[in-house]
Each structure stands twice: as C-alpha cells, then as structure tokens.
Amino acid sequence: MDTTADDPTPPRGAGRFAAEHDVAVAAAHEAGALLRSRFHSHYGVRAKGADGDVVTDLDLLAERLVVRRIKERFPADRILAEEAGAVPAQGAGAPAGGARTWLVDPLDGSNNVVIGLPAYAVGIALCVGGAPVVGVVHDPVTDRTWTASAGGGAFGPQGRLTGPRRPLSPVGPLLAWTQGHAVGRCDPVAGALKEALEVRCRRVLQLWAPLLAWAMLARGDIDGFVGYRAEAIDLPAGALLATEAGLVIRSLDGGAFRGGMNGPDTDRSFVAGRAEDIPYLLELVAARQDGGHRLVT
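The line above is the sequence of Inositol monophosphatase family protein; the predicted structure tokens follow.
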C-alpha cells in the first residue's frame, strides 16, 4: 500500500501525453499549495444549487490558477471546470468538437473544507475523444500526488500502484461510496443501495471527496468503490487511476462501464475493485426488491 509520503514528487510523464501529464501535475501542486496555505483563513462561502452543495473563494482561486496554467501551455484545448463551466478553445488551431478536453475539479471536498475537515483534493484529467488519457489527483494536506496515463500505468509516492492485494475480510469489505449532487435525499435507489452496503460491509466510507476514494482504491487502502450517478467532472481522473492500477470498473448490473465526461448521470453508476472481487461486490448491489424499488436501474 502507498500510505506514506517519503517522496511526494510524482515521476515525470512519459509517452505521447508526457507534456500534458507534467503540466497537470505542476498545476495541481500549485493549486494544492494555495488551498493548503489558506485552509485556516477567512474566505467566502456561497450556496451552490438547492441540494446543499457549496462553493468557496478557495474553489474559484484554485480553479482560475489551474485553468490559466493549462491555457498557457495548451491554448487550443477545451477546458471544462467545476465552477466556470466550459472554457472554449482559443485560436485557429482549436480542434473541432472539443476532441481534447481538460476536466478541472479545483477543490474536491468543498463541504469538508467549510466545516474544517482536512479531506480534499485537486483533480485534473485530459480526455481525448471523451476517454481519459491523463489523470492527476493531488492531496494538499499530505502533499501527495497520484497520476495515471492511458496505457502507462498509475503511480504515487511509493511507485507503481497496484490496488488492494489482500483477500476480502470474512467480516465484509471496506468500501467507499459516492453519489452525484443531483441525487435527492429521498432517492429510493440510493437509499436501498446504501442500506444494502451498510448491512454487509465492514465499513462504508462517505468522504464527500470521491477523488480521495479513487486514490485510496488505487493504493489498496480500501477494497472497492461504489458510485451512484457520480459527477462527471472528477470521474475520469479517478477511473483512469483505478484502471491503470489494474482494477476493474463495472456498471451496477455487471455490464461494461461506459460512463465518463459525456452522457447522462445514469450512465455513471459503478462498482470498482479487483477483478476477483467484482462478482462479490456486484452481489452486494444486485437487483432485488426493496420497498418496491429495484437496486439496479
């Protein structure tokens, strides 16, 4: 497991997207230093939508920094940022149809920061044709970074990431859970899923910062990750980290997972873990009747 910060400096990128990898890592580190330095400061907090989410001045400052760094190096690329939304590509060389799109989550865990809980991350991904090719997750609290490149593996401070190696505990797996902002408090599917997991798992972590959960899974700290209508902005970076660490992601019905930056949130429900553990994890969320509602839709 990659649980210490002996060398927090991630390896430089290699291969086709080496330059993009290194720009993303540098931008995430710079944004992380900003967030860490102002964590205990006074900053503005505003409601974001009607579902209890928030946006802070820290989100906006970190996002502007990351977007600026990407635009300086890759002005022809499209950027989709958590707070600003779509930032169009610039110049005559801009690719048609947004073939290259950066996804920026400048502060994954804003609700944690607002209550003084130091559990948050910076996430950056580059997608080409809708598929992630570079993913970066940076934890400003520990100054650790985990990165992945399509076909190039996933890496952290202790080297290559390989996911959990231990067998599942007889008292149940240790899982993380995430759900999208659009999922209501009384959503019957989410309620039934969480109830089923709580009954049969050793622990179910709800971190309010899914990028941290993806990093934990890739490191091997947890056994699996279950998501229901997950957010598009941070999913590609986390999913790439997991798959390049040798883990498997399936839709809740066991089929191929096709969720990503595009499409409806109903495509972004998943189970992730080791290939040998996936059948058991799928059993936990298997379709059954619960108050008239099916767990898998």
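Note on the example: The first helix runs from residue 18 to 38. The CA atoms of residues 114 and 197 lie 28 Å apart.
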